[in-house]
Structures are given as structure tokens and as C-alpha cells.
Write a structure and sequence with these properties.
It is a single chain. The protein is α/β, with parallel strands linked by helices. Helix content is about 25%, strand content about 25%. Helix 5 crosses helix 9 and helix 7 packs antiparallel against helix 8. The radius of gyration is 24 Å and the shape is globular. The structure holds ligand MIG. The site of ligand MIG has 10 residues, from loops.
Length: about 650
């Protein structure tokens, strides 16, 4: 029914990206309310004073996107500063709302698309696809939530992971051997801290070759997987996009023989370099190549693996062989010149811009639905189609089992096949806030199963940051602590206050019945698991500006602490609510607070939850693993 509120406009010769799953009526002309400049191929919309803009999924800055420029152009960029325009994802759905009327837009274009939302001109939103081949959808509705529901009907049902994936996961780039992983399991067990997953980063592989396991580091891998499962732990290995070029490596040999790798203009396979050294990129956009690569996951599912994370699938490129040659030639030229200071900077740029160089994305092609397409024009589909490759294979390999799958790069449509994590953030307080602000936009775009690297990936973390980040992460569907090689270790047992950490993780497990059922409601009803307050309290002007509190499911609001050395925070209540101040699942105090502003105390080990009027919050008894939670035995906190 709600599809009737959607209108589709086509420009140029749009690709069938796979984002949309329903046919909607095509309109002629320009989307209502927009102007289209034929010369610059730009759509513009005049923003009213009260207009707010929500959406765009995984992007920097606040919940209200107004005031910045965002470029959908999947990028392997670990510096998620406010002045960045592109992260790993392209989720091109947004809503414009002035409080009395709202509409949504979905720009289905797999190349680079620029959303200038009051950046160049504070009162103008302009949308410019680099290639004009676009399906432009306008979605009408009476409220943001109604528009979200229509959009999600258009793009199809969100991915649902296995239930154990709602547990806590420990990860770190640097676990190298089975014993490293055993140690993690053991230390958590000793402290009695629940744990469902340990992630395996690239070092488990033999020379970073996909679908191999280093036999010295993991002798008898199958038995190790079994051993861990007996401890209740699921091992979740990483899969990278690039396939190592190495004679005799079956995946390389097969892909080469069958012509399944991305090719250059001259028909030869592109040679790029990533962790394995020189690699070819599978052409996931080609149906046969996609099916072929997907089947390889069976090598690991046969060993008992039930979950994966797909990485480096923007794709990230450290360098291409061709570009490197050009760089060396340029460097030689510089060597023979008298360098003035500007020349020196030019020289420096030539070298420092080697990785993820935009020119490299113009050097190779896909065989996409029988069309030879240059990569940059469909760049944002690559991670989506890698994840689709795995997911379609899982349907064949283990049709009766759910497999955990999430990806770094994404595009709308991928939400049907897997979740996302938000890539290489940093151990900074501002990145905890960014995590809070990104979550509703991800939910809105259908990426309901998502989360950030808790504690921060890059840089050195601190105990209080991990504590506060866990206290927020309790509510995110994907709940994973992950950090980078060489940074301070941040497994919960590395810190002093392990009892507090245990209480927080147990609180998550106590909340799993609520979290899971609210997650499933969001999936089944095309709703949002995490919402800005404004989406429910649209008539309350104060809620327009609440950027650090979220509604989680239908019953509760949360107000995380995201600043250093705080023992409390200001909270705005759009109506009377019952504050539950948790220290653990069975140690909390409650207090009914009236509508309005409050300063609420929250010590480092405390979590603030607000139960909405007439609603209730069920709590289970925590267990060491999700599957051991007794979901029949629930205690209810009523408003
Ligand atoms: O170039 O596999 O975002 O989570 O730990 C870095 C190593 C490659 C990037 C991922 C990160 C992962 C890391 N990877």
C-alpha cells in the first residue's frame, strides 16, 4: 500500500543496482519541489527555515545532517573527522522534515553522489551524481516513520543474524594463534563475563589468502572450532576482497582460468596490492563470479564456522601495479629537477596519494548484467555484491541455518544480505558520540544489524572510555569490542574494574529478549530499532535538537554519557518517564521524572534507561551465552 506514496524519476540510463525490490510507477519530469540544472546535472531543493534532514546512514556529524556536504563514495579512510565527506558506506536515503510536512528521497546511483545539505548555501540542498544515470525516488508520507516504512518496503526486508550474534564479541587485530584465542576465552571465563564470539582477524590466514587457515598457527582447525563451540564461543573469521596472486593457490588459479577477476581496458586482470601482496579483485558484479566466490565460504562453514565479516571491500587498494610504475617515473622526473618548495609539495603528494587513489578506480571494469562497466561508475556496489555473494551461497550451503555476516563497505540493498560495522574509528570520546548519532541513520536505511568498534579501533583507549562505550554498546545490535594492531589492549580483562564490566555485559544479556524482539519488530514492520526522539515526539520543538539521546525500540529512551570525567549529564524528557539507573541487571534504582530538563547522575558503572509511560522493560537472568538465557523467566520493570 505504502508504495503508492513513492514516485520514481529516471535520468540517463540507470543501472539495475539491486537496491530496490518493487516496481513503482515511473513519472516524467523533475521530482516535485526540486529544480534540475541540465548543465551541471544537479538537483536543488530550497530548505525552509525549519527543515531538518535525517538519514544518509553511515556518515559523519550529527543526527540532523543539515550544514555539511556528504559524498557517497565508499572510502577506506580511518580518519573519521568531522571534516570528512565519505566513509565506507553509501546509503542514499534521507528525509526532509519541517515538522508539518516531510518527504523522503532515495537516490539510486551506484557511483559517487554528492549531497550538499546547506554547505554551499545554508538554505539549499543540492544533489549531484557524478554520472547522471540515476533513479530518483521521492517518498511522501505523513510522518518520518511512515516514510521510512515506505522506503524500506521499496528496498526489502533487513537481514536477521542468528540469535547468538546478539551476544558480546571480542576482537582484536593481532590474535595470531589458536592459543591467543584460547587465552581470550579463558580470561573471560575466569571472570565470568559473558562472551559469545571471538573474531579472527587476517592473521589466521596463510599469507593472507582468503579461505585458507595457517596450519602452524591453527593445527587441526576443525577441532579447534569444535573446542571453542563447546565453550559456547563462535569463531568469526574475516574475509578480504582481494585474492592473492600466487601460483598453485586454487582460488587464484580458478578465478584466473574462468575469467572471474576484474579486468583492465586491455582485457588483462587488474593487479593491485593489499595485505596479501599482489591481488586480483573478484568481479562480484558478475553473476557467475559471484556464485563462484560465494561457494568458497563453504570451506570454512564445513569446518564449523557460522559467521564472517567482509573487509577491504570498497575495495581498498594500497596501490596498483600500473599506478606505482607511473609514480616511480614521476619521482625520477622530480629527481632531475631543481625542486622549489611548491615542487617539493607536488613531489610529496605524488607519493602520499598512492593508496586508494581515485584514478585506480578508473583502471578496471566489471561485467555487470552483460554490460562492460568501468568500476568508478558502480564503485559503491562492490562491497554490497561481495556480501551478496556470501549470503546467496549460504542459502545453498546451509539453507536451514542463519549465518552471521557483516561488511565494511555497503550500499542500499546490502541490508538484505548482511549488517555493517562502521569501520576504523578511533579511541576518542567524540567517536562514542559519533556512534550514538550514526545508529538511527543506519536503522533508517535498513542496516538494522550494525554497530561500531567498541572502545575505538585506532589509537590508545582508556578504561573509562571503554566503560562508557560498553554502556552504550549494550543497546546496539552488533556488540563488538575491536582494536587495531599496536594499540593499547582493550579486552575487558585488561582493566581494573572487571566487576563493573561484568555487570554491564550481564545487563546486555538480561536485555537480549527485549533487544531481540524490538530488533525483529523493526525488521518485520520496516521500522527503526534506534530512533531520534524527534521521530516520536514531532510536535515537541525541543526534540528537534536532541542529538545525544535515543529511543531504543518502543519502550525505552537512553541517554549515554559520552564525555570524559562526567558523573552525570543533562537529559531532556519529552514526557514523564521512569528513570532506571542500572548498576547491574539486579541492582538499580528507579524514579519517575517529569517532562522537562533534568540533571541525572550516572557514575562510571551506571547506565541510564528511561521507561516510557505505559511501557515495560523485560529483563532476563543473564547467562554466559545468549542461547543459555531463559527467555521464559522474565522480570518486568513497568513504568
Ligand atoms: O588495512 O584486517 O577495518 O577492522 O582489523 C586494515 C585488519 C585492514 C581494516 C578493518 C579492521 C581490521 C583490519 N583491516
Amino acid at each position: 500500500m505504502s508504495l503508492e506514496k513513492i514516485r520514481k524519476y529516471e535520468f540517463g540510463n540507470p543501472y539495475d543496482t539491486g537496491a530496490v525490490v518493487c516496481d513503482v510507477r515511473k513519472q516524467v519530469g523533475i521530482p516535485e519541489g526540486f529544480k534540475y540544472d541540465m548543465n551541471t546535472e544537479t538537483f536543488t531543493y530550497t530548505l525552509g527555515e525549519k527543515d531538518m534532514v535525517f538519514g544518509l546512514g553511515e556518515t559523519v556529524r550529527g543526527i540532523n545532517k543539515r550544514g555539511w556536504i556528504y559524498v557517497s563514495n565508499n572510502a577506506d579512510d580511518p580518519v573519521h573527522d568531522e571534516n570528512k565527506t565519505s566513509l565506507y558506506a553509501s546509503q542514499n536515503f534521507l528525509i526532509v522534515d519541517d515538522g508539518s510536512s516531510a518527504f523522503g528521497i532515495f537516490v539510486d546511483n551506484p557511483g559517487s553522489v554528492t549531497f550538499d545539505i546547506g554547505y554551499t548555501d545554508m538554505n539549499v540542498m543540492s544533489i549531484h551524481p557524478e554520472n547522471n544515470d540515476t533513479s530518483f525516488y521521492v517518498i511522501n508520507g505523513d510522518s518520518p516513520l511512515e516514510i521510512v516504512a515506505s522506503f524500506r518496503e521499496l528496498v526489502g526486508k533487513s537481514y536477521v543474524p542468528p540469535i547468538w550474534a546478539f551476544g558480546y564479541g571480542q576482537s582484536r587485530w593481532g590474535y595470531k594463534t589458536a592459543d591467543d584465542i584460547r587465552t581470550v576465552a579463558k580470561r573471560y571465563k575466569e571472570l565470568g563475563i559473558p562472551l559469545d564470539m571471538i573474531y579472527m582477524d587476517i592473521d589466521y590466514m596463510q599469507d593472507f589468502k582468503d579461505f585458507t587457515v595457517n596450519p602452524e598457527r591453527f593445527p587441526d582447525f576443525e577441532n579447534f572450532v569444535k573446542e571453542m563451540k563447546e565453550e559456547g564461543i563462535h569463531l568469526v573469521p574475516i574475509i578480504d576482497a582481494g585474492v592473492k596472486i600466487e601460483d598453485g593457490y586454487d582460488i587464484y588459479e580458478e578465478g584466473k582460468a574462468k575469467g572471474y577477476f576484474c579486468k583492465k581496458e586491455d582485457g588483462s586482470n587488474l593487479v593491485a596490492a593489499v595485505w596479501p601482496g599482489k591481488v586480483h579483485f573478484p568481479d562480484f558484479l558478475n553473476d557467475d563470479a559471484r556464485a563462484w566466490f560465494g561457494e568458497k565460504y563453504k570451506i570454512l562453514t564445513d569446518a564449523g564456522i557460522e559467521g564472517f565479516w567482509n573487509d577491504m571491500n570498497e575495495p581498498a587498494i594500497f596501490y596498483t601495479e600500473d599506478h606505482l610504475k607511473e609514480v616511480f617515473a614521476q619521482v625520477k622526473e622530480f629527481e632531475n629537477k631543481e625542486l622549489d618548495i611548491w615542487g617539493f609539495f607536488d613531489f610529496k603528494d605524488v607519493v602520499s596519494s598512492i593508496a586508494n587513489n581515485p584514478e585506480d578506480y578508473r583502471r578496471f571494469y566489471h561485467d555487470f548484467n552483460g554490460r562492460k562497466v568501468r568500476h568508478d561508475k558502480v564503485h559503491n556496489l562492490y562491497g554490497f555484491y561481495m556480501t551478496r555473494s556470501a549470503s546467496e551461497a549460504f542459502d545453498k550451503i546451509c539453507p536451514d541455518k542463519k549465518i552471521l555476516m557483516f561488511s565494511r563497505a555497503s550500499y542500499t540493498g546490502m541490508h538484505r544480505y548482511g549488517g555493517v560495522w562502521t569501520g576504523d574509528n578511533t579511541s576518542r570520546w567524540s567517536h562514542l558520540l559519533m556512534n550514538i548519532q550514526m545508529m538511527p541513520a543506519l536503522s533508517m536505511n535498513g542496516f538494522v544489524f550494525s554497530g561500531a568498534d567498541i572502545g575505538g579501533f585506532g589509537g590508545n583507549t582508556t578504561e573509562d572510555l571503554v566503560m562508557r562505550w560498553i554502556a552504550f554498546g549494550i543497546f546496539t545490535p552488533l556488540f563488538r569490542n575491536h582494536s587495531a594492531l599496536g594499540t593499547r589492549e582493550q579486552e575487558l580483562y585488561q582493566f581494573e574494574r572487571t566487576d563493573d564490566f561484568k555487570n554491564l555485559i550481564e545487563l546486555r544479556y538480561a536485555l537480549v529478549p527485549y533487544i531481540y524482539s524490538e530488533f525483529m519488530k523493526a525488521v518485520d514492520n520496516n521500522g527503526m530499532y534506534m530512533k531520534p526522539l524527534y521521530f516520536e515526539y514531532r510536535n515537541d520543538d525541543r526534540c528537534r535538537e536532541v542529538e545525544d539521546q535515543l529511543l531504543v525500540g518502543d519502550s525505552i529512551m537512553i541517554a549515554p554519557v559520552y564525555e570524559q570525567n562526567r558523573t552525570g549529564r543533562n537529559v531532556y524528557l519529552p514526557e514523564e518517564m521512569k528513570l532506571v539507573r542500572f548498576r547491574s541487571y539486579d541492582d538499580y534504582d528507579t524514579e519517575v521524572l517529569e517532562k522537562g530538563d533534568h540533571y541525572v547522575k550516572a557514575a562510571l558503572n551506571e547506565v541510564l534507561v528511561f521507561v516510557r509511560p505505559g511501557k515495560e522493560l523485560p529483563l532476563a537472568k543473564p547467562a554466559r551465552q545468549v542461547e543459555k538465557i531463559d527467555t521464559k523467566d522474565l522480570k518486568i520493570i513497568k513504568f
